[in-house]
Design goal:
613 residues; 3 domains; TIM Barrel; alpha+beta; Beta-galactosidase, Chain A, domain 5; hydrolase activity; ten-stranded antiparallel β-sheet; Glycosyl_hydrolase_97; hydrolase; globular; carbohydrate binding; Glycoside hydrolase family 97 protein
Length: 613
């Protein structure tokens, strides 16, 4: 009996003692200002730093790995958390070059000071309403002068099966389930399980390499892969932010399109020479430049552009971006532009930029050039991205607006250098994408920021048949009008292949004359990825609405709740007619009205809504 009693006491003691030895790992967490979004961080039983993301207490991402693989040590595995700090940020800043002229930047931040082996590093995480962002910092420490990041160990283990809209750089989008994913996917990546819509993005990439998402090692997971090279670092090196945004509808993702701006340092003061606007591309002659300036004045454009070839064959080292070809009298064109308040933008290819950037910037300032367009840049390697960041700064310091083309996508650097008005990183209109592509873009690439879509609007007399086109445009004129509202870019290229003398029907081009490129307020009204989209944007007291259908007819309605109560408005509607042109009609509307949408596949509709006096 005594032996049995002693044994019972021993077993009870073990039950109490064992949990104290094997206590659950400590969880560090930060919650969004509205209390609905949360990140949890812990060092798990295997001593790996991990995180998960929850919305309304339900996991969106299950426990996922964090860390970097350096040449000599892995950060993330064998981690100890030395301390943690938290803070709250509540601010609002003006942004006159955006979709909304005021941006709320409210978040809660947690910083973990970590050690893997003898190496110190930090993880900084910020939690916004609906979004989580985190980055790694390699602080200055004894024995660390520089290090090589061979790979990034960040993973995204989703809590459900998702479909991802896969693409790379300027390709089309392919919806594919994660278990069937065979290719990498660029940031920002959009995923859905039919209930939730996720955007996994990047912000603040000015010294890193291009990273992509790749299929993870376990089911329903994604990892991070370097596209081209490893990353050289120095003390106090910061990686780009990785972001995860969650919405319960496709149009709900739009609220996160300014997240990269919120995560990058602000410009000290907005320069008054940074002017948004619309442009027409000129043929490469003096007279074409003069004609385009006259066209710009008549159609309320602010710029013309001389594109590739104005200084010779762009890929030849012998072509000199300090010397226009004989067919262009550049001083004459620029002077005519100045007399009419129209700026001239000049394209320079990567070959010319690398050879003569420091020469052409003061020279173009002397000429009176308004802006530059960079072409065929390297946005794929650390060296290329770092060079671009330095070049953006130089262009800003010399007082030029900037457009960067080809594989480069925004990561919020415009907040620091607002002269960077737009960039490509998109399959634009010159590639004749279809209506599916056009109605996927608002929910994917445009979540990273502005994009130069280069509208190839057909002229009044013919549907482009020149050598620049292998096929005809795959969407209607009405859809192109609508997309000038749906697609955001402070610098919009409208008539990319157009000759100004060919546009003689003012009704067809009137909406382009009226539509602005930056906004006081924007609202996504309704939309489904690849099916349809409708966006309303306000400038002053006037609203502009763009609606576009995908590859199927769209019959629906818009609620005009965004209009001011008690006021009558005149709605001018520009839509496709039955003969390939644009029909214009007007109706009176007010707040609370239901506006019917009846669009055939590939069509669109643009509306101008002005208050009646």
């Amino acid at each position: 009996m005594l032996i049995r009693t002693v044994l019972t006491i021993f077993l009870l003691t073990i039950r109490v003692f064992i949990p104290s030895i094997y206590a659950a790992p400590k969880i560090y967490q930060a919650t969004s200002p509205d209390g609905k979004t949360r990140i949890e961080l812990t060092v798990n039983e295997q001593k790996n730093l991990t995180y998960r993301v929850l919305l309304n207490n339900a996991p969106v991402l299950d426990w996922s790995a964090l860390g970097l693989q350096l040449k000599l040590i892995a950060l993330g595995p064998n981690t100890s958390i030395l301390k943690h700090t938290q803070r709250t940020n509540n601010e609002q800043f003006a942004w006159p070059l955006g979709e909304n002229d005021q941006i709320q930047n409210n978040y809660r931040e947690i910083v973990l000071d970590c050690r893997s082996g003898a190496f110190l590093y930090k993880l900084i995480a910020r939690v916004f309403d609906g979004s989580v962002a985190f980055r790694y910092v390699l602080p200055k420490q004894k024995g660390y002068v520089n290090a090589l990041i061979i790979s990034e160990k960040t993973t995204f283990n989703l809590a459900d099966s998702y479909t991802i809209y896969q693409y790379n750089e300027e390709t089309v989008f392919t919806p594919v389930t994660l278990d069937a994913l065979t290719k990498t996917c660029d940031f920002p990546a959009t995923l859905t399980n039919g209930k939730l819509f996720l955007s996994i993005g990047e912000a603040g990439n000015d010294t890193y390499t291009k990273a992509e998402l790749t299929k993870g090692a376990i089911v329903n997971s994604l990892g991070v892969a370097f596209h081209k090279d490893s990353v050289n670092t120095a003390a106090d090196f910061q990686t780009p932010w990785r972001t995860i945004s969650v919405a319960t509808s496709a149009i709900g993702l739009h609220q996160f399109s300014d997240l990269p701006l919120r995560l990058t340092p602000p410009v000290k003061e907005m320069a008054n020479w940074i002017k948004p606007g619309k442009l027409i591309r000129s043929s490469l002659t003096t007279q074409a430049g003069l004609d385009c300036i006259d066209f710009a004045v008549k159609h309320n454009f602010q710029y013309i552009m001389f594109d590739a070839g104005w200084y010779g064959a762009e890929f030849r080292g012998s072509s000199d971006p300090t010397k226009p070809i004989p067919a262009i009298d550049m001083p004459k064109v620029i002077q005519h532009g100045k007399e009419n308040n129209i700026g001239v933008i000049l394209y320079v290819n990567r070959v010319g930029l690398r050879a003569k950037l420091d020469t052409i910037l003061p020279l173009y300032k002397k000429w009176g050039v308004a802006g530059l367009k960079f072409g065929f840049v390297d946005g794929l390697s650390q060296e290329g991205i770092s060079w671009l960041a330095g070049a953006i700064k130089k262009v800003y310091e010399h007082g030029f607006i900037l457009d960067i083309h080809d594989n480069y996508k925004p990561t919020g650097l415009s907040h620091s250098y607002p002269n960077l008005l737009t960039q490509e990183g998109i399959r634009g209109n010159e590639n004749n994408p279809d209506a599916f592509h056009n109605t996927v873009l608002p929910f994917t690439r445009f979540l990273a920021g502005a994009a130069d879509y280069t509208f190839c609007y057909p002229n009044s007399n013919r549907f482009f048949t020149d050598n620049l086109y292998k096929t005809k445009l795959q969407v209607s004129k009405g859809q192109q009008l609508a997309l000038s509202v749906v697609y955001f870019s402070p610098l919009q290229a409208i008539f990319w292949y157009g000759n100004p003398h060919d546009y003689n029907d003012d009704q067809e081009t009137e909406f382009f004359k009226l539509v602005p490129t930056v906004w006081n307020e924007s609202r996504y009204l309704t939309g489904e990825i690849g099916k349809h989209i409708s966006v309303a944007r306000r400038k002053g007291k006037t609203w502009y609405v763009g609606s576009a259908a995908g590859l199927a007819d769209w019959n629906g309605s818009l609620q005009l709740d965004f209009l001011e109560k008690g006021k009558a408005y005149m709605a001018t509607i520009y839509e496709d007619d039955t003969a390939g042109g644009i029909n214009k009609r007007t109706i009176v509307v007010k707040q609370g009205d239901t506006f019917p949408i009846t669009l055939k596949a590939k069509e669109g509709q643009a509306i101008l809504i002005t208050p009646q006096s």
